[in-house]
Amino acid sequence: MASFFQKLAKAAPIAFTQAYRGQSKSASANFRFPIGAIAAVSGGISYIYYYSSSKVVYLDEASEDSGPPMALNPNKWIEFKLQDKAQVSHNTQLFRFSFDPSVKLGLDIASCLLTRAPIGEDAEGKKKYVVRPYTPISDPDAKGYFDLMIKVYPEGKMSQHFAKLKPGDVLEVKGPIEKLRYSPNMKKHIGMIAGGSGITPMLQIIEAIVKNPDDNTKVSLIYANVSPDDILLKKKLDVLAASHPNVTVYYTVDNPTNDWVGGKGYISKDMVVKGLPAPGDDTLILVCGPPGMMELVSGNKAKDYSQGEVSGLLKDVGYTESMVYKF
């Protein structure tokens, strides 16, 4: 197991960025791509639902629903044991959690799970929790385990909890939390724009497509990061693109190295026009990344976490609300 996990860790990205760094010099590039908040290769960016990324919340457990056997339960916190962990970089770790090997995790495409950790008690002695969403990087159909990749922040309540976990310790998990309900061939061509850990839901969908011989969906991904070393799961994405003609991946980085051969700079209108399917009824554009990227590309979600209006580059190119989904 140790040898396998070290190999898996080496296949992960080498470096991650710190926090989202601020504003750009012009309206067409009003963000820097330091894609921070990389929680698990994770999805805790814009689809936190009613769990604010900075809030501590109380949760009441509901009765368990009946259904097909699966490890996750959407109405109950379940304990999963940490099987192993491996260091990916100076501040990023890979965690494997185990469960009954006869059942699947129960993760839908595309969805995430919720994790929680106790952070003390209130004045009345009631236990308080921090809650965060994460998207596993393991195959949703895998039995007996799931993997999370976590960037550990010095002040991150949940990531610090992860950092302290040792093999044999347990993590409380609830889910799945549904995002986009993907179905095979729902669109002829899906375009994707991801920044940093926003790659995770995209990877879920890509893998679901290529695993299904009856799914003929074409996928075009634009993936932006600060530097080549910040690209998450690049080896995996490269293999997917090389082995499946219906999948293309275009990388762009803010700070390219001398030998970098991909895109340079922020996501631009030209990249969108050349790299994504044209607006149309058979087109769907998925967007997931930090707020600055979302604002530039598609506009952020509304305050109530609904999709909101489409703005930014996608609106300029001609995409409408029915053609865009924001994670």
Automatic annotation (TrEMBL):
Cell location: Mitochondrion
Reactions catalysed, as given in the entry: 2 Fe(III)-[cytochrome b5] + NADH = 2 Fe(II)-[cytochrome b5] + NAD(+) + H(+)
GO CC field: mitochondrion
Source species, domain of life: Eukaryota
Residues spanning the signal sequence: none
Top EC group: oxidoreductase
Keyword terms, alphabetized: FAD, Flavoprotein, Membrane, Mitochondrion, NAD, Oxidoreductase, Transmembrane, Transmembrane helix
Binding site for FAD: R132, P133, Y134, K151, K157, M158, S159, T200
EC number assigned by the record: 1.6.2.2
TM annotation in the entry: 31-50
Membrane found in the keyword field: yes
Main location: mitochondrion
InterPro entries noted in UniProt: CBR-like, Cbr1-like_FAD-bd_dom, FAD-bd_FR_type, Flavoprot_Pyr_Nucl_cyt_Rdtase, FNR_nucleotide-bd, OxRdtase_FAD/NAD-bd, Riboflavin_synthase-like_b-brl
An MF annotation (GO) of this entry: cytochrome-b5 reductase activity, acting on NADH
Pfam family for this entry, one: NAD_binding_1
Domain FAD-binding FR-type: 75-183
PROSITE patterns assigned to the protein according to its UniProt record, in alphabetical order: FAD_FR
Cofactors: FAD
Similarity comment: family membership: Belongs to the flavoprotein pyridine nucleotide cytochrome reductase family.
Protein name as catalogued: NADH-cytochrome b5 reductase
Native source species: Oldenlandia corymbosa var. corymbosa
